[in-house]
Amino acid sequence: MRIAQVAPLIESVPPRRYGGTERIVSYLTEELVHAGHEVTLFASGDSLTSAVLEAMCDTGLRLTPGPVDPLLYHLLMLEEVRKRADDFDVIHVHVDLLHYPVLRDYRAQCLTTLHGRLDLPAAHRLYANFADYPLISISDHQRTPMPPVNWAATIHHGLPKDLLPFNAKGGDYLAFLGRISPEKRPDRAIAIAVRAGMPLKIAAKVDRADQAYWEDMIRPMVEANPNVEFIGEIDERQKADFLGKAAALLFPIDWPEPFGLVMIEAMSCGTPVIAFSRGSVPEVLDEGVTGHLVNSVEEAVARVGDLSRLDRSAIRRTFERRFSAERMAKDYVAVYQQLAGAREPTPAIRRAPKPELRLVGNDAVHDAIR
Q1: Which of 57, 157, 296, 359 could be joined to 364 by an S-S link, Cβ 3.0–4.6 Å?
Q2: How many domains is the chain partitioned into structurally?
Q3: DSSP state, 287?
Q4: In this structure, are residues 234 and 207 in contact, taking their beta carbons and an 8 Å threshold?
């Protein structure tokens, strides 16, 4: 099939550091190319892919110096996609709802994956007005607050099996990975580690919007507890080591998480997850197999003491069965084939040799797909 992947322009594809949506777009794109499809990626110019890259700006906008209006660049990209719509059997969009008015004439061949939270009342009015667009949810729970729309499927995220290697031994510290923000609750992670008497390593970015939260609440907690280490934002290469050597990942969220990519990243390493049972978490975690679901700091502390009962090999096997990028791509292709506007039948798949990703991180991924 001739497939357009339309990515956000905030980060490159894949992102150099933080960036869940762009990471998933990269994994999906590479799997589709590997499966023999003709894929065009609309993304920033510093993206690296084995698909045909249509550069919509020089670099990911988060790294672009000077004043930048993301809306301007995204509208320019969507207009370019509209002009070229007849070149594709499927247009797969990852910018939430921004493309709705621009691509309405091509909605039958247009598939939208919603990557963010959907409990925003103002957005519901727009979704209701464009209810004929086929949509993909990344968890069943993500759909809960939505008005009636055209759900095509729920497709959980997936990772390349050889991206983050299995670590059979783990380590003696707890890990927190993601963003420093109120909804991610790093304060809970610190409280759990302190009460459990275990070291905690925090690898996280601090967005400008969350700077006050970091300075006023989290930084003082880090400095007051010698068993807590703040590492900062890390890349993919560092992530494998960081997660693989952890005794467990703490995921103490306080919001309706649409998916939680970091949970399956930990599973890939064989590292169990202790997570608050919010949003998609009960769909992603298998209680007593890949980790534990909790509803309080006290429950989480108790579960830290149970970590030795979990089989890291079983966690890795569950990851391979449920959350591989190959499975994710096959699920998407099945939906592509059902779109009313997909004008051509899917050809017989000729799987090309796939580069082996021996190293971990953006450098390795980029070397492999050049």
Answers
A1: 359
A2: 2
A3: B
A4: no
Those residues with Cβ within 8 angstroms of residue 120's Cβ, 6 or more apart along the chain or in another chain:
none
Contacts of 239 (CB under 8 A, 6+ apart): 164, 177, 203, 265, 360, 361
Residue 252: give its domain's CATH number: 3.40.50.2000
Question: Residue 169 domain-assigned?
Answer: no
Mean of the per-residue pLDDT values of the chain? 91
pLDDT tens by residue, 221-239: 999 999 999 999 998 789 9
- Does 297 share its domain with 317? yes
Task: Quote the pTM value.
Answer: 0.89
Contacts with 260 (C-beta within 8 Å, 6 or more apart), sequence order: 251, 253, 275, 279, 280, 281, 284
CA angle 305, 308, 309 (to 5 degrees): 100
Looking from the CA of 35 toward its CB, the CA atoms found within 13 Å total 24
- The residue whose two tokens read 């990028």 is 325
189 and 298 in one domain? yes
Query: Are 182 and 135 in a shared domain?
Result: no
To which H or E segment does residue 292 belong? strand 291-294
Q: Which tens digit of pLDDT belongs to each residue from 119-146?
A: 887 888 888 889 999 999 999 999 999 8
In angstroms, the first-to-last Cα distance of the chain is 22
SS3 state of residue 310? coil
22 lies in some domain:
yes
